[in-house]
């Protein structure tokens, strides 16, 4: 059995309209998504145009 590794990726240059769900769906083809989060302005709740995705992959898999 292959060991699993978590990768946390910064994703920048996102549209203001990008949601957590859209980000999750966009990266789901690369592995099992553990977490996806759009970073939002504390005061306005509006997207800041970037986020993070954490994927779990087997050691021998590659994300292109």
From TrEMBL:
Superkingdom of the organism of origin: Eukaryota
GO molecular function: RNA binding
UniProt keyword Transmembrane helix present: no
Gene3D superfamilies linked: 3.30.70.330
Keywords, ordered alphabetically: RNA-binding
SMART domains on file: RRM
Annotated GO biological process: miRNA transport
Protein name, UniProt field: RRM domain-containing protein
The species this protein was found in: Salix viminalis (Common osier)
């Amino acid at each position: 059995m292959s060991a699993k590794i978590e990768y946390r990726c910064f994703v920048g240059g996102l549209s203001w309209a990008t949601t957590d769900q859209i980000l999750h769906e966009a990266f789901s083809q690369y592995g099992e998504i553990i977490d996806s989060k759009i970073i939002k302005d504390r005061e306005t709740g509006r997207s800041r145009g970037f986020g993070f995705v954490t994927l779990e992959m087997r050691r021998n898999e590659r994300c292109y």
